[in-house]
Amino acid sequence: MKNLLDNDKNFYPTPGSYGFSEIYSCSERLNDIIKTLNYLENRNSDHNYNTRQNLESSWKSGILKDIQLTHITVTFYKKGTCHIVFRDLELLEKFNLFGSQQKSWLPPNFGRKPFGDMNNEEKEVVKEFCGNTENYMKIFNNQELYLIDEKKLLN
Asked: Would you state the pLDDT for residue 12?
């Protein structure tokens, strides 16, 4: 991690120009993302995340770029945005699948039904969501990795 002082001062904010209130307001949302990803990994939800403390410590040190948190890396910019990079792309895909299923955007048998056995409407949704049948087959062939059995979560 580079210290803020090593960077272009015109692009990166300094602790004086970027209040901790902006970072503090993001910390709760970031904490929710981390809790959700931990939940999807079947980690204990009582885990102490220390998101706010990590962000405050980084801010006081002048570090607002590439802050490492559980599952994600965050960067704060002068314009007030927080950019998130997910470090585990398979977990991100699992997150997207779970959220899409909860919103009923995917067929109920998504990932569990062979592509060839789907009707035309289901195939169209799969192609739209996955981009191609190879990506769907990756999910179908690795159901235990990508699909959530809610009954088994955090028992």
From this structure: 41
Angle at 27 between CA 153 and CA 103, to 5 degrees: 45
Residue 81 sits at the vertex; the CA angle it makes with 80 and 86, to the nearest 5 degrees, is 155
- pTM recorded for the entire structure: 0.71
Helix axes 51-60, 20-40, angle to 10 degrees: 140
85-143 confidence digits (pLDDT tens): 999 999 999 999 999 998 999 998 999 999 999 999 999 999 999 998 899 999 999 99
C-alpha closest to that of 73 among 47, 92, 60: 92
Pull the structure tokens for residue 133.
């049948």
Nearest Cα residue to 7 out of 54, 77, 74: 77
Q: Long-range contacts of range 39-45, CB-CB < 8 Å, 24 or more positions apart?
A: 39/153, 39/154, 40/91, 40/94, 40/95, 40/98, 40/148, 41/91, 42/152, 42/153, 42/154, 44/154, 45/154
